[in-house]
From TrEMBL:
InterPro entries for the chain: ConA-like_dom_sf, Ig-like_fold, Secre_tail
Key word Membrane present: no
Pfam family for this entry, one: Por_Secre_tail
Domain Secretion system C-terminal sorting residue range list: 524-591
GO molecular function: hydrolase activity, hydrolyzing O-glycosyl compounds
Organism: Flavobacterium swingsii
Protein known as: Por secretion system C-terminal sorting domain-containing protein
Organism ancestry: Bacteria, Pseudomonadati, Bacteroidota, Flavobacteriia, Flavobacteriales
Entry annotated with the keyword Transferase: no
């Protein structure tokens, strides 16, 4: 009996291997060939539009954002051997609404690589162009190859630039068309859901050559109960789809889950030729509550960029000057180093954020990380109104305190979900004129001067309903700041997975906690110090030393007059020393050199 079972397993595996004759997921390399590496490339993240691979760690990008209008380039598969059956090409493509440019791909089959051939189908990048889709995101496409093929062929994908946004494709497969092949195409659930009952819905497609009349639809959260629904009385024709809605809903409680949906037992147990497309697994965070959102605007611009001047003057500045928008969004302007010499206020933190998003053109406006393609103030206002309706899962506030050139920012946040996120803090100058260059603009708004501690942000492990407090300190000397009195501080929380902005806030002025009567009785010396710091005090005090990220690095209690603090194990740099007794406290900056 064991021998028979093993034989059946080997036959089934062999059948699956035969059904899928070629696949490419771009996880380790491009794998396909292109005459110019500046046209088609493998990337691990995408910009304009911002996206991540459909699955795995890589995807293919056609650089239509930077290629001149009507530039074309072909991405060719390796040689594929066809053995007399019928076949189809399947792939995923990211669609976005940035228009009106009709960047597209055409899919061909041919006897040679690098050329066109027989056209199988066309997909436009723009969501409102054929085939029309309802929203931005990844979509599945398939094209049948006519006739029974024998011999070597190549799949050629021609990208055509209309100087719009980039094209991204992933997960290419060439499959033999078999009698039974049910594919779970979509599972509709958000990466973050509010606690409560959730429908298990999506779409199934019949890639086989015979109708699907019955199936088992199953789902499971983590390793919990498997919920099975036997669906009969179907008649899903070849290449037709079926919208499913499982009879059992998911009662979601706060936490992080792996949620899996799959199909099996097609037509009463007939062998599905392609098990790889039978299931979808998604990571879902369940939140305990929501709160209103303050949208974050991030604009990449330059004083040497004529289109930036046009966009700022005709679109953004009228929106900025609309009084009813005051306090309803936060705003950071990153001045980039192109075209030509670029903006003189470009610096490393700007470049870190540019690379993070994959930005390669200016002007580019992001609203909560999504690229905005609005061409008028009215459309920008519509986008702002829509952004305000999106719930947030973090309450957030921040305070700022500038003493000389030392900026201290305290960020308080309470999450309604659990997970690891980044806190970013941006110091901007509300109006600058010292970076005037060649594009005709004479002033610039909310120009980034410093990210605290830098453009990479601070990692925080959040726990549902548990408040957090993060203190950051930075020395603002030697920057492009024109007026210290004109600074604003923006804090925001971002998820590096998908680069989603979770919440933002504008820092308010901190109430002073320094007791200057105590300060007059305390002296820390020498300052700067090589690591040994003495304290002169009239009465015992407690001391807490923090680095510029707010991390406590040294404590000492009941410190008496002329006691020494040995800080020689700390790295050179600036630290804050908080000195307190039972009734007062004050903070002083020290330098270790």
């Amino acid at each position: 009996m064991k021998k028979i079972t093993l034989t059946l397993i080997f036959l089934f595996v062999a059948f699956l291997a035969e059904a899928q004759i070629h696949s490419q997921n771009f996880n380790t390399a491009l794998g396909w060939t292109t005459p110019l590496t500046t046209t088609w490339t493998r990337v691990t993240s995408g910009g304009t539009p911002t996206c991540s691979p459909f699955e795995g760690t890589g995807m293919a990008k056609f650089d239509s954002y930077n290629l001149a209008n009507n530039t074309t380039a072909i991405l060719s598969s390796p040689a594929i051997n066809f053995t007399g059956a019928t076949y189809r090409v399947k792939f995923k493509m990211y669609r976005d609404p940035a228009g009106p440019e009709l960047d597209k791909i055409d899919v061909y089959i041919h006897t040679a690589a690098g050329a066109g051939g027989t056209l199988l189908g066309t997909v436009n990048r723009l969501t409102t162009a054929a085939p029309v889709v309802p929203a931005e995101g990844w979509y599945s496409y398939s094209f049948d190859i006519a006739g029974a093929l024998t011999g070597t062929r190549y799949i050629n994908i021609r990208g055509t630039s209309k100087y719009g946004y980039n094209i991204f494709i992933d997960d290419i497969n060439v499959d033999q068309i078999t009698p039974i092949d049910a594919s779970l195409e979509t599972f509709v659930i958000n990466s973050i859901e509010l606690a409560g009952s959730k429908a298990i819905t999506g779409q199934i497609k019949n890639y086989g050559s015979t109708p699907i009349t019955s199936m088992d639809l199953k789902w499971q959260a983590d390793s919990g109960t498997i919920y099975t629904q036997n669906i009969t009385g179907l008649n899903i024709a070849p290449n037709a789809t079926y919208n499913y809605n499982h009879a059992n809903q998911w009662v979601a409680t706060p936490g992080n889950y792996s949620l899996k949906v799959w199909v099996s037992n097609i037509n009463g147990g007939s062998g599905d030729s392609n098990a790889s497309n039978d299931q979808i697994t998604k990571a879902v965070s369940v939140a305990s509550n929501t709160t209103p959102r303050l949208p974050l605007y991030e604009k990449f611009s330059s004083s040497t960029c004529p289109p930036c001047a046009s966009f700022n003057t005709n679109v953004f500045t009228p929106f900025y000057n609309t009084a009813s928008n005051d306090g309803k969004y936060s705003f950071i302007s990153y001045q980039v180093n192109w075209p030509g010499a670029g903006d003189p206020y470009f610096f490393a933190d700007v470049n870190t954020r540019r690379i993070y998003y994959g930005i390669s053109g200016a002007p580019t406006l992001l609203i909560d990380k999504k690229v905005s393609t609005v061409g008028s103030t009215a459309l920008l206002q519509t986008a702002q109104n829509a952004a305000l309706t999106v719930p947030s899962y973090f309450t957030m506030s921040a305070t700022k305190d500038l003493v000389g050139t030392t900026m201290t920012v305290n960020v308080n946040a309470t999450p309604y979900l659990t997970g690891t996120y980044k806190i970013h803090v941006a110091v901007v100058e509300k109006l600058t004129t010292g970076n005037v260059a060649t594009n005709g603009e004479t002033s610039f708004k909310h120009v980034l001067m410093k990210m605290m501690p830098d453009g990479n942000g601070t990692t925080v492990n959040f726990v549902n309903n548990t408040p957090t407090s993060t203190t950051l300190i930075a020395d603002l000397s030697g920057l492009h700041i024109e007026e210290m009195s004109d600074l604003e501080v923006i804090a925001f929380i971002q998820n590096d997975a998908g680069k989603i902005v979770m919440q933002s806030t504008i820092a308010t002025q901190a109430l002073s906690t320094n007791d200057y009567s105590l300060a007059s009785k305390i002296k820390l010396y020498p300052n700067p110090s090589n690591g040994i710091v003495k304290i002169r005090t009239e009465s015992p005090v407690n001391v807490v030393v923090s680095d510029v990220t707010g991390k406590t690095v040294f404590t000492m209690n009941q410190v008496s007059n002329d006691s020494q603090m040995n800080l020689s194990s700390l790295e050179k740099g600036m630290y804050l020393v908080k000195v307190s007794n039972e009734s007062a406290e004050f903070t002083q900056k020290i330098i270790l050199n």
